[in-house]
Design brief:
This protein is mainly beta.
Length: about 500
């Protein structure tokens, strides 16, 4: 049997046997152009297409900073295709030996539909920049900016939707660390369109996409169950659903996401529009400054479907004339432990100004004293909700806030961003006279002797400075409070607490 297997490898080739890493660098001008190393990486804007075509299941493709096109031709129907089992990573400088060394922010890697390099003329751009159709198109794209898609083609070929990305018929791709921006359509899903597909999106941003009739950022239709974790939807626009449209028995999950400054027209749903037997679950998300000219659902509109909102903030979204009424519309909307402007029935819900750092500039962190701190329900903080929108640990206790949420402390905060209390003081060791004996009366004698500007006790000892709590203030009562609290085996606590 071993001989047969060995002969099969010789006859069939070894590409399915051993996964490899393939390298792509659009800026390279030398080398073998075969992707076997950074020195011989696939070159030109067509390099990524060549690398994907050469890869087999298990391979990784590392892509250096630069701009890549789906085709070197002018054919608008060609797109990058995710292939099942193949992971494509952007954000490299072109010298890395380990994937962890890449820097996505510094090494911007662009997938562009601008085939003729003549934007802002977009009539000749790709209809879709990334396109998956079927279960063989369920690969991974990680670390890219996807831009320049212009889906103004025919409805019959789905070339009128999903300008940035389109996933159809089980193309359950994994998309991480991607920015989908500046794409447009004539039907729906300016940034992304889903139909009978359930991709996974993690740490992605949809920004400034134009969705025409439905879904500025995303339009999903028929039996979709995608997940969105730590994703941002901002400044997208469509006539219905400025951010995301959910239609036709779709069941997406949004966790630690931010919806901000999305705009819907008269068909409502500034951030989200949910309809046609769909069920949307929202956990620890923040909806702020979304708008619509319609009369209902300045942030979220639900009709003929169910929306479940937990641990979230819905505040400062506006309808006609700047009205903040009807933040959430829909008789089958369920909410709990959330802060919804205007009030909403449900356990743990509040109607109090959330205290954002600066909503106008999009800084949706919570200020100290916010009623949303330690006010959520820990039941909805599971293994998929341990890091907030900013990758900070979820469930951080604020010692200055009385817990009003549900569960065992520490209690999670409402909204996408967990409040981070300022670091407390660091007190000196309680062995004030450094004699190797802690919590003994001589430390007390020595502390108060030095505090009264006397000698260290015993005089042969070397005492610490009198700024016991290290707040840069000497001989103040806070040092006495801190010393006595720590001496009684309590915590080092800021003065007055």
């Amino acid at each position: 049997m071993r001989l047969v297997a060995a002969l099969a490898v010789v006859v069939l080739g070894c590409s399915p046997c051993l996964a490899v890493t393939r390298y792509v660098n659009a800026g390279l001008t030398t080398g073998a152009n075969n992707g076997t190393s950074w020195a011989d990486a696939y070159r030109t804007s067509d390099g990524l297409r060549l690398a994907i075509a050469a890869s087999t299941a298990g391979d990784e493709i590392w892509v250096a900073a630069g701009t890549y096109k789906p085709t070197p031709t002018a054919t608008r129907t060609i797109a990058f295709t995710p292939r099942t089992g193949i992971a494509v990573y952007g954000g490299f400088g072109g010298t890395e030996t380990d994937r962890s060394q890449r820097n996505i922010a510094a090494n911007v890697t662009i997938l562009s539909g601008d085939l003729a390099n003549n934007d802002p003329i977009i009539t000749d751009n790709s209809h879709n920049v990334v396109r998956g159709n079927g279960t063989t198109n369920a690969g991974t794209f990680d670390g890219f900016t996807v831009t320049g898609g212009n889906a103004n083609g025919s409805s019959a070929s789905d070339s009128d939707r999903g300008g940035g990305m389109i996933f159809l018929n089980g193309a359950n791709a994994t998309i991480r660390n991607c920015i989908i921006t500046g794409n447009r359509v004539i039907f729906g899903g300016g940034g992304t369109y889903l139909r009978s597909a359930s991709p996974t999106f993690v740490d992605c941003v949809w920004r400034s996409n134009a969705g025409a009739s439905f879904g500025g950022a995303i339009d999903m239709f028929t039996n979709c169950a995608p997940t969105f974790t730590r994703c941002e939807f901002s400044n997208n626009a469509a006539n219905r659903a400025g951010g995301v449209e959910v239609f036709g028995t779709c069941n997406p999950l949004f966790t630690n996401c931010v919806f901000r400054n999305n705009n819907a027209g008269s068909a409502t749903g500034g951030a989200l529009y949910i309809a046609s037997s769909s069920t949307v679950t929202i956990r620890n998300c923040t909806f702020a400054s979304n708008t619509t000219t319609g009369s209902s659902g300045s942030a979220i509109t639900t009709t003929g479907s169910t929306t479940r909102i937990f641990n979230s903030i819905v505040w400062g979204n506006t309808g006609p004339g700047g009205s903040t009424a009807n933040q959430v519309a829909g008789s089958t909307t369920l909410a709990g432990s959330s802060n919804i402007q205007g009030g909403f029935t449900g356990e743990g819900n509040i109607n109090l100004a959330p205290g954002f750092v600066n909503q106008a500039t999009g800084d949706l962190r919570l200020l100290a004293g916010s009623p949303c701190i330690d006010a959520a329900n820990n039941t909805n903080v599971d293994v998929n909700n341990v890091l907030d929108f900013l990758l900070q640990t979820r469930r951080i206790d604020d010692p200055a806030t009385i817990d009003t949420g549900i569960g065992t402390a520490p209690i999670a905060d409402m909204g996408a961003i967990e409040y981070q209390p300022p670091a407390g003081p660091t007190c000196d060791t309680i062995d004030f006279n450094n004699d190797g004996s802690s919590f003994d009366p001589q430390d007390v004698d020595a502390f108060f002797s030095v505090f009264s500007e006397g000698d260290c006790i015993p005089t042969t000892a070397t005492c610490n400075d009198i700024d016991f709590n290290n707040d840069a203030s000497l001989f103040d009562p806070c040092d006495v409070d801190s010393f006595l609290l720590v001496f009684s085996e309590g915590p080092c606590t800021p003065c007055g607490q």
